[in-house]
């Protein structure tokens, strides 16, 4: 039985960049570019009409920015959240954290090699989240001060501590530090398969959709090594 191609919607206001994405994805035998949008409002309308498997979303767009577009498509109040891959320029965009809170399934930098971009779409299409470890360390670290919790966040932190086992808390801390499953396994002296099991348990216990939301939550409540 042939697997249907991944249906991709491109949302990017720069025509040349948008054309480049279309060329890259259209060249993949397992992908089909089903639409494009040059502003956030058009992105939301196209996504709701076309129901793509993955939305590739720029953050800085006219009319409606990519953060609000992502929130409308994948936010906590969305009945059927879309899978959104945010592609951003780190030195320009200071809103990636907000995009992740809005429901994005992951992010990549715009200067990522085409193969990394293509594999990112495949990762998100199959239901996994995408947090490139090196990018996570740089980006989340850049916002560490902003993300550190106020005292009012402590009850939420206490609830998480009670909900998770000691090992699950250790895995969550490593996730928030930007480590991949393989790196977590090496750090904690367990197998990658065991890490995957722990991550699944963490998401279930905390009612989170993916590891992106786990990272955001860990920073919001201070469950990050060296954050206090």
Automatic annotation (TrEMBL):
Residue span(s) of domain HTH luxR-type: 157-222
Residue ranges of domain Response regulatory in the record: 7-125
Residues bearing the modification 4-aspartylphosphate: 58
Any matching Pfam family: GerE
Keyword Aminoacyl-tRNA synthetase: no
Highest taxon above the source species: Bacteria
Keyword annotations: DNA-binding, Phosphoprotein, Transcription, Transcription regulation
Name the UniProt record assigns to this protein: Response regulator
Taxonomic source organism: Nonomuraea guangzhouensis
């Amino acid at each position: 039985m042939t697997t249907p191609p991944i249906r991709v919607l491109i949302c990017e206001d720069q025509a040349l960049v948008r054309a480049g994405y279309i060329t890259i994805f259209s060249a993949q035998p397992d992908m089909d570019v089903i639409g494009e949008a040059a502003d956030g409002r058009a992105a939301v309308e196209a996504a709701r009409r076309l129901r793509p498997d993955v939305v590739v979303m720029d953050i800085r767009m006219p009319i409606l920015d990519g953060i609000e577009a992502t929130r409308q498509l994948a936010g906590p109040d969305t009945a059927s959240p879309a899978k959104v891959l945010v592609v951003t320029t780190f030195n320009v965009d200071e809103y990636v954290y907000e995009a992740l809170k809005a429901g994005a399934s992951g992010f990549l930098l715009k200067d990522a090699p085409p193969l990394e971009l293509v594999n990112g779409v495949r990762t998100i299409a199959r239901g996994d989240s995408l947090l490139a470890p090196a990018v996570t360390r740089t980006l989340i670290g850049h916002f560490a001060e902003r993300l550190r919790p106020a005292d009012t966040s402590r009850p939420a932190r206490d609830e998480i501590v009670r909900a998770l086992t000691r090992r699950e808390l250790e895995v969550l801390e490593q996730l928030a530090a930007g480590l991949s499953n393989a790196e977590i396994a090496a750090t904690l002296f367990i197998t990658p398969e065991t890490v995957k099991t722990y991550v699944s348990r963490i998401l279930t216990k905390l009612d989170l959709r993916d590891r992106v939301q786990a990272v955001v939550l860990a920073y919001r409540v201070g469950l990050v090594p060296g954050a206090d």
